[in-house]
Every structure is written in C-alpha cells, then in structure tokens.
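hey so i finally got around to running both of the ones u sent me last week. sorry it took forever, my laptop kept dying halfway thru and i had to restart like 3 times lol. anyway pasting them below in the order u listed, first the sequence line then the structure token line for each. didnt double check formatting much so if smth looks off just lmk and ill redo it

first one:
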Amino acid sequence: MMNKAPVTMVKRTNIDLQIISKPNIVIKATAKTISDAKETFDYCLDSKGLSYFMDCEPIWNSIITLKSKEIKSRLVTEITTKNVRDSNLNMKYSDVFHSDKIKGNFLIVDRTKYLCFIMDESQLTGQQLVRQLFSTQLKPFVDSQQYLFDNLCNHSIPAKEKIREIGRGINGDFVDIIRTSSEIHKIAVELIDSSTYEILMLFSTTNSFYRAEYSGMLNSVWEASQRGVNVKMLIQGNKEDNKLKEIVQRVIYQRNLPVNIQYIAKPLEAKISTLVIDQAISLAIEISDDSKMTFEDSTGIAIYSNSESKMSSSLTIFETLWIQSEIDIQNKVKQAYFQMFKGFELRDEFYTRRWSFEQQRAKKDKPVQ
C-alpha cells in the first residue's frame, strides 16, 4: 500500500497568505516576525496561547528584547487564577489587559504583518500545541484585524485591576486580627510568596528592617523580585547609618535585587510596619518592643485585611511617606550644593545698562570699519 502524501509544511497562495504546519518552522517564523518589529507589537492570546508563548524560549526571548528597543507592546488575554503569574511576567514587557472568554491567538506587528495560530485541542503543552500558522501582509485584511484588536483593547480592563479582583475574590472580604507572632511571620512570608506584580514594605523602625533580615523574610522578597515582582521599601533610619548601610548592601546590592529603597529620616509616631501585596492585601504589624532582637519577641498584634478602606489607607500612608522621602533627598542635594560654594563668599550682583536714543542711533549709523 502506498503511503499518503506528506502534509504541506509551507504553502503560499495567490493573495500573499503563507500557511505553515511544521512546528519548528512555526517557532522560527514567529520569533523572527516579532524580532523584526520596528514600532508596535500587539498580541491576543487565550490561556493555551499564553502558555505556548511563555514556554517557547525563542518566541519569549523575542518579546523580551522589544522593551530594550522601546517598541510599544500590548497584550490582551483572559487572566485567571491559573495564569496570574504568567500575566504578571508579561507586564514587565507589555501593557497587559484582561478580557473575558478570549478565543483565538494572533499577533500583529507594525500594523502591517498578521500571524494567526491554529491550536491543536488534543495537545495541552509543548511545541506540538500549534497545528498551523498562517500569516499575511494583505493590507485590507491586516487593517481590519488591527481595528478589531484596538477595539478589544479599549474595552478591556488593565491587568492590575483584574489581578486585584482575583486576589480579593479568592479570599473574600475580611479583616482579621492576628495575635501570635509566629502566625504573623508565616502570613507575611506567604503573602510575599504569593505576590504577582508588586510588594510595598514599610519598616517603621530601623530595627524592624534588621529583624526582617534575620528572620529570613527578605529571602522571600529576593525570590519574588527574581520572578519579576516590583519591590519598593521604605526604611525609617538615617541613610548615613553605617550599620544600616552594611545590612542594606549585603541584602540588596550584593544580591543585585531590583528593589527601590527610600529612607525616612524622621521617626514615625506609630510603630507599625506594613506590607502591601498587589494593592489587594495588607498586613499591618505592631511593634510592641523595638529593643528586642527577634521578630517573635518584638511583635504585638497584626491586622490582616483585603478591605478597600484598609487598602486605601495603607497605600496613602506609603505613598505620602515615599514622596516625603524624595523631597528630603532633594533638600539634601540643595544643601550639599550650597556648602560647596560657601567658602567663596559669592554675592548677588545686578548689571544694568541704559541706552539713550542718541546713543542707539549713533551705534546704528556707525560705519563698519
């Protein structure tokens, strides 16, 4: 019996439509099309498509490089509890939006190149997930698909809003008072481990930062930063404090942690350290005895909540202190600048010169030598 004819791997039609069915060529063609982007890159992926793009190294690497080339990138997908972290990772390189019940997978490069992926329903993962890829640069067709994508993007919600919604939906609305220090520490670490795009940490005393380091809490922060979570820390203390600088250098700089740190020079009235995760859940920890060395001995009660009012309050306090810290830095720079010129005894001098009508006319009529 004769074998069946082989499946066509690459086919071109008379309307500039290319159809590819060989997996390795699909990957190469997709990665090259993305890498060739000059201005824009838009892509719409359902759950399978998102998983395929994230698992396929050549395609994912081509997306990563777009940011360094300052190419505007947008992704519309359906964000669920299962793909929150993948969505968060895409947020590092693209503007990500959520839309319910996304079906289909396609991308548009520079508003001129269109690629559509036909997924194999029998495959869950791996390169065989794509059964066929077809691409075209036919302008009327690409323009219509671009219009549909823009419309879909405009009616979608930002990924951060959906991630906050998922965080609140999983846990329900709650305000809990935690009284045991071991349980507080456990919740803090679990929250950091569950973070998807942002961690805000306010250490209301210098010692509270030391204790977070000694208790191993900052190890979880390091792991979170490695998976792309944005971390911002506010530490009460003098930036010139040698001990503080030594700890920060060891914990943050030697590990190359992508962490933004600001210092609060003035002591805070309330000795409460705060942790805010993804702008959805907060943990406010009371410091009962700041002289104690360990987290367990120094901690009082904690308020663990995802209520809108608690979250807004925590965010407002953090942002206000962050802005104040930046103002303090600017003032220090100004003071240092003035100190540099203090010994020169500079004085303000004003120079004016008045021209009479005759002088101006004489100057104008004076022949060129």
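and the second one:
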Amino acid sequence: MKTLRTTLALLAICATTLSAQPALAPLPEDGFVTLEQIIDDFSNNEDAALQKYNGMRICVYGRVGEITQSDDEEGDPLAVYMQLPDRTTPDVKAVFDPDFIPSSVVAVSDNDTRATVYHADWAGNLSNQTSFIVQGEDVAVRGTFDNFVAGDIILKNCFKLSPEALQAKLAARAPATE
C-alpha cells in the first residue's frame, strides 16, 4: 500500500510538472522563426520543441556569432553559429551544404569572423571574391532541423536567403501602420 501511494504521488508530481510547461506556438506555414523564438522554444520545453521542429525545413533569422569550417562527416564546407547578442555560446548551428554556396571555393578567415567565396572563370582560374557571411550581421538561414546537441540547435543543408528575400519575409511580418 505504501508503494502504491508513493507511486501515485510521483505520478501526480510528474503530471503537474508536465502541465506547467508552456505550450509552444505552432510553426508558421513558411517555417520562418526568429533566433529568439527557436531558442525560447528549446529553453522552455525541449520535448515539445523537438516535436515541433523534427525534420522540418525552417528559416531562422538572427545574428551571426561565429563562422567556421564545418567539421561534419559529409564534407560540408561551412558552419555558421547564430547567437543572441547577450549570449556568448552558440545557439543555432547552420551547416551549409556545398550545393547551396554560390561557389565551389569557400574560405573562412583566421579569426572566424568572415566567410569568403571565390569565383572561377571558364578556365577554372579564380577571378574574384565575394564576402558571403560576416560575424555580427543579421541573416536568414533556411535549413532542415537535424538535432539538438549540447545546447546547439543543428540545421543541415542550409543556405542563406538573399537580402531581397529576407526583406520580403520581414516586410510580410511587419505590423500594418495606419
């Protein structure tokens, strides 16, 4: 009888704890979320966030904190860590597939603050370079949610939205002013 009471008490505590976790807002149809929204989802209710984002193609808008050569097994060339301004640890790790970078040659600066793409001419000679992504800039990255590991929300097969596409997304979300 004592074991039954203890079990029921533990179940009641678990049920109370689960019901106390806030419900998450549904993912918008276009999958666009801010960095703050996705971080809050995982901070407030990790299990529900895993269900919400599992396998979904999403677009995260936020600040670039660090840029590195990717260390994954698929040979992806670039990893971008998006961070909130008041945090020093990575929050969203966006791994770029080589098919989604506008060049076959990508170099990350020694201080991990800039990724540069190099363009080749018809003969394969490097003809010019373009800054692709820079630490501190606000970007929108579309990718597939892959995992939540050690506090990092991992997106795979990512690409960066063009400035025009980003502006259109932001304009669509801006409140109407009259």
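quick thing i noticed on the 2nd:
The chain has four helices and nine strands.
anyway thats it, ttyl
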